[in-house]
Design a protein that fits this description.
The structure holds 2 protein chains of 2 kinds. By secondary structure, chain A is an alpha+beta fold. Helix content of chain A is about 15%, strand content about 40%. The longest helix of chain B has 24 residues. Chain B is elongated, with a radius of gyration of 30 Å. Classes of the chains: A alpha+beta, B alpha+beta.
Chain lengths: ~425, ~250
């Protein structure tokens, strides 16, 4: 398939370029590495369907394609063909004229129960490539659109992406008010789970996505709690004297790695949350913290200042003496996060300008690539469940907001900005239902 | 004492000397006068007025030498010696009285402005909150360098003062809150804040305070004193604070 081939070629070229730092910078600034021009036509609104819902669907498709960094989304105002044009009557020349390589168009019928048809066309070939019909409750309209978008992405890039079906939790801080918040991946559907003036810190999902661990000074000690998303109950998970922070879930859905300072200094432990059995994993007089468990549960990456300043280390959980330092450059590397595919570790590091930026280590090659530069303070990287997108907080445009970036850093967009600062985001596991 | 060195007497003495002129510079008298004046310095706070008068006479005598009025200078040097000897003698005989006078007058600086400042700092009622015998003593904030948990040298005395206070009030329990500046990740800063609080706690324990009376808690970067993003604010925010637990 020529579209496929062409895009893959382009992607290869882009990745080759990204190794060169300066070029990455230029491209991030322009926000335009993508050369595959996608036209997403407004939907035809039929049989009394909700026009606002139709607009929401097409913009959801656009947003998903956009954040992958592989597509340039064309401006609707330039389109020459009416949305109502039938699927079998598309005038491909009019789409070629606006520079489209691909076209997505569709129809929406019904109010409470919807019938959504979406089609993807290869404009150069003048051919319909995918066409789907989704019948569902109106509340599932966006999800239907996501399914379609992921099929288009798979077809054109060969990559399986499911980030659009997941959620992100983060802390919203305004003055001394903290709120634990969950939104969809795109910052929509904000839900406040818990708020307090006594800090909410470092939220992290349980392996099954049903709970969120977080730390709070609610009882004047930084204790670890869990919030149950089904029952809305908050339970104390760990309340040793000193720090109880930085939970990271093992795949068994009952064990967590965490940082405790009960033995006089920040150390990493594993805690079985069903039996409360505790096992100490690090022994060091300097700080060891911020564990992130590998998806197979065999290793953790963590921060240690055992060399004199914070660096990222990897440790085998079956042989605690097998410790490897992953970062050599810079003297302030922290916030490590294992990618769910187990191949990468993202972290934030202080660069030569004393600013915090995001980096990704490829564990096989040990190559470190840079995701952000000259864009304020960028912290708390978190991978989408498909390992394709990174969520993080950035204050590049004033107060701290929730940003998403593709893993090459070529496309970065703000998806949520509240009244306060958006901090410490954590991406949920893949949706299971 | 002051009457004893009545200024009128000096004036009369000087007047009787006016007629005498010429001769050589009074070398011996000068040396004796200068030495006596130097010796009188220890007692200058007993009788500031006469000490200043002696100094003035000494200056006049030196001026007369320049003017070649050697006899006049000679008598002036003698007067300086007499005055200075009397001050020194009084100081030897009444050292306690001198201390009292010294305390009353401040720290013996000549400049009026500085004297005022000295009085202020010597007045213990001006800062009652730093008195470790005061149960309501104000607790001071201890500061740190970036990414460090060693207490700044100039802040060690704050911890020592705290130790004295805890010695004086053995029933009191304190909490040390450790903080970091905004730079760095939240989890690392929680550990750093705790290291700082722990360092202060250990210093108190070394000073003999029971560790059971000292709680610590880290707030990481969460509670800045100054929310700005500059060196000044960061310095203020990297801190350990003492709080009363009871």
């Amino acid at each position: 398939m020529s579209v496929h081939f062409r895009l893959i070629t382009m992607i290869t070229v882009v990745f080759a370029c990204l190794n060169l730092f300066a070029q990455l910078q230029v491209e991030v600034k322009d926000g335009a590495v993508a050369e595959y021009n996608m036209a997403v036509s407004p939907l035809a609104v039929l049989d009394g369907a909700d026009a606002a819902r139709a607009a929401e669907i097409s913009s959801a498709v656009e947003k998903v394609l956009d954040i992958t960094g592989y597509f340039k989304i064309l401006d609707k105002r330039s389109f020459l063909e009416k949305p109502e044009t039938a699927f079998n009557a598309v005038n491909f020349k009019s789409w070629l004229d606006v520079g489209a390589n691909g076209l997505i168009k569709g129809t929406l019928k019904g109010k409470d129960d919807i019938e959504l048809e979406l089609a993807f066309f290869d404009v150069a070939k003048g051919k319909e490539v995918i066409k789907k019909k989704y019948s569902a409750k109106a509340s599932l309209a966006k999800k239907s659109a996501y399914r379609f978008a992921s099929e288009v992405i798979k077809l054109l890039t060969g990559e399986e992406m499911n980030f659009m079906f997941s959620k992100i939790t983060f802390v919203e801080k305004k003055g001394d008010k903290y709120a634990l918040v969950v939104t969809n991946f795109d910052g929509s559907g904000r839900k406040e789970l818990y708020s307090t003036s006594k800090t909410i810190l470092l939220p992290e999902w349980s392996a099954d996505g049903q709970k969120i661990f977080f730390t709070s000074h609610e009882k004047n000690n930084p204790n670890l709690y869990s919030y149950d998303l089904k029952s809305s109950q908050i339970k104390t998970v760990s309340a040793y004297e000193g720090l109880n922070v930085s939970a990271s879930a093992y795949p068994d859905n009952k064990t967590i790695a965490l940082c405790l300072s009960k033995d006089g200094n920040s150390e990493i432990y594993s805690l079985d949350t069903t039996t409360n059995e505790l096992k100490r994993l690090t022994v060091n007089s300097e700080t060891d913290t911020a564990p992130s468990v590998s998806p197979d549960g065999q290793e953790i990456v963590f921060v240690s200042s055992r060399s004199g300043n914070p660096q990222i280390y990897k440790m085998s959980l079956s042989d605690l003496n097998k410790i490897e330092r992953l970062t050599e450059q810079g003297n302030y590397n922290q916030d490590p996060e294992y990618s769910p595919d187990g191949k990468k570790v993202a972290f934030s590091g202080r660069d030569e300008k004393y600013q915090f930026d995001l980096f990704i280590i490829d564990l096989a090659s040990r190559q470190i690539s840079r995701i952000t530069q000259n864009q304020g303070k960028n912290e708390s990287p978190t991978f989408s469940p498909d390992s394709k997108i990174i969520g993080f907080s950035s204050n590049r445009s004033g107060k701290s907001k929730l940003f998403l970036s593709n893993v090459s850093g070529t496309r970065q967009i703000a998806v949520y900005s509240g009244e306060g600062e958006v901090l410490m985001p954590s991406w949920s596991p893949a949706e299971t239902n | 004492m002051k009457q004893f060195f009545n200024f009128c007497a000096v004036a009369v003495f000087l007047l009787t000397m006016l007629c005498s002129c010429a001769g050589n510079p009074p070398k011996d008298e000068r040396e004796l006068a200068e030495k006596a004046f130097a010796d009188a310095e220890a007692g200058k706070d007993c009788d500031r007025e006469n000490y200043l008068a002696a100094e003035e006479l000494l200056n006049q005598a030196r001026a007369e030498i320049n003017n070649k009025n050697y006899d006049k200078a000679k008598e002036l040097f003698k007067a300086v010696k007499e005055k200075s000897d009397a001050i020194a003698k009084y100081y030897r005989e009444h050292p306690d009285e001198c201390m009292t006078e010294k305390d009353k007058k401040g720290n013996g600086e000549d400049d009026g402005k500085i004297k005022e400042e000295d009085i202020t700092s010597a007045d213990s009622s001006a800062e009652p909150s730093l008195d470790p015998t005061n149960p309501d003593m104000d607790f001071q904030v201890v500061h740190f360098e970036y990414n460090q948990y060693a207490i700044l040298e100039e802040d060690l005395q704050k911890v020592e003062l705290m130790a004295q206070w805890m010695m004086n009030f053995p029933e009191r329990v304190v909490r040390i809150e450790g903080h970091a500046d905004e730079r760095g990740s939240n989890d690392y800063n929680l550990s750093l804040g705790e290291k700082r609080a722990l360092e202060v706690k250990n210093k108190l324990i070394q000073a003999g305070i029971d560790g059971a009376r000292i709680k610590i808690v880290s707030y990481g970067e969460e509670l800045p004193i100054d929310p700005a993003s500059n060196e000044e604010a960061w310095f203020k925010n990297r801190r350990a604070e003492f709080k009363r637990e009871n």
